Amino acid sequence: MKTLKVGIIGGGLMGREVACAIGRWCALVDFPVRLELTAVCDLVEPTREWFRQVPTVRLLTADYHELLRSDVDFVYVAVPHHLHEAVYLDVLRAGKDLLAEKPFGIDLAAARKIRDTARELGRFVRCSSEFPFLPGAQKVWQFVRSAELGHLLEIRSGFWHASDLDPTKTINWKRQSKFCGAIGVLGDLGMHVAHLPLRLGWRPKRVYAQLQKIYHERPDGKGGMAACDTWDNAQLHCETEVAGAEVPLHLSTKRLAPHEMNTWFIEVLGTERGARFSTKEPKTVWLFERRKEQVWERYDVGHAAGAFPVVTGGIFEAGFSDCFLQMWAAFVAEREGLLGGRFGCVTPDEAVASHEIFAAALQSHAERRAVEI
Ligand SMILES: NC(=O)c1ccc[n+]([C@@H]2O[C@H](COP(=O)([O-])OP(=O)(O)OC[C@H]3O[C@@H](n4cnc5c(N)ncnc54)[C@H](O)[C@@H]3O)[C@@H](O)[C@H]2O)c1
Q1: Which residues contact 347 (CB under 8 A, 6 or more apart)?
Q2: At what angle do helices 84-93 and 108-121 cross, to 10 degrees?
Q3: pLDDT value of residue 236
Q4: Could you tell me which residues are beta bridge partners of residue 77?
Q5: Ligand 1 pocket: which of 8, 9, 14 to mutate (most atoms within 8 A of CB)
Q6: In sequence order, which residues have a C-beta less than 8 Å from that of residue 33 and are 6 or more positions away?
Q7: pLDDT at position 204, please?
């Protein structure tokens, strides 16, 4: 079986998640390619040391250029946003393919530079966004593409967190604009809510954005306080055109959403049919139908509804690590030309399109008006 060597740059929260996804690769049934994690780069020694338990890792380094000189076939990069552009470009120029973490550059200019460089160099590049790979989200995607929805009424896509409600939560780079970007929470959560609408062809034409900064400082972890200058919540009221009609598209990203622990959701409503899925009810998909009576039907979904078959029982419920594995399978399958009609990872064009929305949202909020995209 073909084996691809993988390198990770940035071994923090997401870098470790990737090591675990690769370790669970045997869960994929009849998948034509095997992965081997061979090289890991992180600046922090204890972070690097964690990867020693992965038997295939041969190179641990603090210098990502050393990793890029190794024989890895492609690289996954999960570093703070202000480093995306430089590191991603170095990966591409080293002749390696790239699975990039979102938001794919700290701003629109960086995203365009990365997309254009990948195109010039002919490198295969995709961006991370795993929630649409959950079985429930897959069912919504398939339903919306095939069902007669009638006149589309509205689309809602959101991703909400709650832990920042706690004002004593210590600051980190994700809450400081110089590392996270001026788009704040949109850089953190925005790609997750844009992926499915963009893939369904629902590009916003204009946006009116409400951005909120709630807490302006947080404990610095050293006994003092530090400025917390990123947008906490962002609600984007957009319009998209579907079949010649303008349809409201709501993109909602919040770090301060009471009692919402990593809640990702999508809802599509038409006059005839509709669909709804939220990770709040992780194995439930709701489908609407206007019959003589109007009904919401409730379906349970398990692993059987995933895009790539796994050994896990078809009725067993899926979670974060499962959709992350499915996303990785989609990346590898697409790179090998084997994706078929299945759902794929965010393309560089879609990543740039998401940044165009976020840049317009910043302008909209600053000028308190709707902005054309
Ligand atoms: N897909 C998702 O669900 C998801 C979730 C969280 C974060 N992310 C994204 O992943 C990326 C990383 O986020 P995280 O939560 O893993 O952050 P993190 O802070 O946990 O990890 C980042 C790591 O990068 C390392 N690093 C920094 N500079 C480096 C350099 N020059 N060379 C090598 N390593 C370096 C740090 O030491 C740290 O270990 C961000 O782009 C973030 O938006 C994605």
Answers
A1: 126, 127
A2: 0
A3: 98
A4: 9, 100
A5: 14
A6: 1, 2, 3, 4, 332, 333, 336
A7: 98
